[in-house]
Amino acid sequence: MAESKPDILLNTSDLDLLNEVSTAVHSIHDLDEMLRNVLAKIKDVFGIDGASIALHDPQRKELYFIQTIEELADGDPQKMAEMRFPDDYGVAGWVLKEQQSVLIPDVTKDSRFTKKLDLQQNLDTRSMICVPLKTRKRVMGVLYAINKLAAEFSQKDLRLLEVLSVIIAVSIENARLYGEVRQYASSLEKENYRLKTECQARFNVQGIIGCSAAMQRVFALLDKVIDTDTAVLIQGETGTGKELLAKVIHYNGPLKNKPFVAENCGALSDNLLESEIFGHVKGAFTGAIADKKGLFEMASGGTVFLDEISDMPFSMQTKLLRVLQENQIRPVGGSRYRQVNFRLISSSNRDLLEQVEGGNFREDLFYRIQVFPIVIPPLRERREDIPLLATHFLEQHAARLDRALARLTPAALEALMQFDWPGNVRQLENEIERALTLAGDNTEITPEYLSERIRPSAAPGGHLEAAPATLKEATAKVERQMVLEALRQSGGNRSQAARELGLTRQGLLNKIARYEIEL
Predict the structure, then answer these.
(1) How many other β-carbons are positioned within 10 Å of the β-carbon of residue 11?
(2) Cα(310)–Cα(306) distance, rounded to whole angstroms?
(3) Which residues have CB under 8 Å from 181's CB, separation 6+?
(4) CA R_g for the chain
(5) Multiple choice CATH, 380-514, 1.10.8.60, 1.10.1060.10, 3.30.565.10, 3.30.1050.10
(6) pLDDT tens by residue, 408-426
(7) CA 61, chain centre distance (Å)
(8) Which has the closest alpha carbon to 53: 32, 74, 73?
(9) Alpha-carbon dihedral of residues 489, 490, 491, 497, nearest 10 degrees?
(10) Which of 374, 437, 447 is nearest to 412 (CA)?
(11) Per-residue pLDDT, 81
(12) Does domain 12-179 sit in CATH 3.40.630.30?
């Protein structure tokens, strides 16, 4: 053991060794590879049989070898890989406990040395240096140098190994920290993926995008009805996505492996519509050259979607009511009824109850088809969904057109959010596709690429109204307008306004204070 450490001058080869070890530590990212290189350099430069590192496992109170370059008698350099021993055992245990280096010229004369370790038995250890691997926080293990091949170990050898041990200890500690960071990053990545999946499930149900309170209510209704075969009536303005919602219900429900058959009730004449829905037999009318199955038969246990059912002629409404009551259809020109089995989803861009009250739709049929009503709000009533929808359509059409993804400038986004969108989501998608086409290679969508009626209007002085500078400002402006509108419609009733906005009463009060809204 070295009681004192006199000043020892390092020569050029010593400095080269330190430089090579330092370079190896910083240039090789794989810990095992780095240690193999470092220990090999130590072995060659010091002229020794072998060098090895044992790390401390404080929980198990053990030391274990992580690398060795020893030339074992049986020629197996991996024999040491899993070797573990008590942390108070032998020379290593003493060095770990005392946190001091030790130089042993003759191990047979040192009581701390033991031959019970396979490594030392195979190497026939004669002399050794063992130094602690210290970091600022702790002693993490020991570094061995075994059997000087020429002469004996010197104090200079000891001092050099102590210097190298600091470099090696720091590199191992950094590698451990890096491993923990990678593990943490991996867990964050998994958590991010989980949250994104939940976000997509919440804001993008099979293509139905929305984060507004109004759309959250629609999603909540979907959760209730998807797993059933209940008849659904979807009401909403043109372009709100009624057929898309019908497909979501079908393809996520118990009938997803069965057909989904759709028909627009306002697109065909009375005779053609009857033939499409109920089918016909050969010779039923001019052009009926063969039997044809109608929608209900083609559905065959699946879903029939009758789009814009409010446009169905009164005579067809009567026949449809019978089908729903009896689960039987009679093809045009046929004399026999056929059994059918299907789920009915209907849609209307008009308020069907108003149609019933106006005498334009059968009341008994209305109650048959609206077992579970869902109303899709128009886009002007969920403006906070516009950024989500616009981004989705930009990504979708950029991929289709094989173009770089463009972004909306704050001014363009403000213009989109201010527009009322009579054509709703369908109109917004068409507008985004048009703007992207006009933008060409430009990766920014500015107001000049939008339709004239959507661009910011001129102020009385002839200047364009200043658009918010950032997305946050644009969103805040829309949010303030929505709060004002909700308060106006509720007559100042804050609890009612909060419910309409999907907020708690305190949440609404916070927004009133934030936007300095005076009531």
Answers:
(1) 9
(2) 10
(3) none
(4) 40
(5) 1.10.8.60
(6) 998 899 899 889 999 999 9
(7) 42
(8) 32
(9) -110
(10) 447
(11) 45
(12) no
